[in-house]
Amino acid sequence: TKYCSKKSTPAVVIKGLAEHKVTLGAPLCPCRFYDDKEKEAKDGFWNCPCVPMRERHECHCMLFLTEDNDFVGEDTTISVDEVVKLSSGMSM
What distance in Å separates the CA atoms of residue 64 and residue 10, rounded to the nearest whole number? Predict the structure, then answer.
């Protein structure tokens, strides 16, 4: 898979996953609304990579994109510095 052509998209998602890993103990998808984040993190369905991604290669966060996606870029890596810079001012 590759990242979105607009690298701020994966940067914000990665930042959110990292924040959830620290606060919840699991990389809960930051792109969804949860009534109870702790319960969802323990359940695991939406922990990255989520069940839809594992089973059908469908990533609604646009973090993991296949070649046939209209938004796919060329990059398969993103540095910590890029994540920090591109997600600056954004929080989950």
Answer: 8
Q: How far apart are CA 77 and CA 85, in angstroms?
A: 15
* pLDDT (tens digit per residue) in 46-79: 999 999 999 998 899 999 998 999 999 999 999 9
Based on the residue annotation, tell me whether 31 is a catalytic residue of this protein.
yes
- How many CA atoms does the CB half-sphere of 63 hold within 13 Å? 18
User: In sequence order, which residues have a C-beta less than 8 Å from that of residue 18 and are 6 or more positions away?
Assistant: 27
Q: Which of 4, 29, 31, 61 is catalytic?
A: 31
SS (H, E, C) the chain: CECECCCHHHHHHHHHHHHHHHHHCCCECCCCCCCCHHHHHHHCCCECCCHHHHHHCCCCCCCCECCCCCCECCCCCCCHHHHHHHCCCCCC
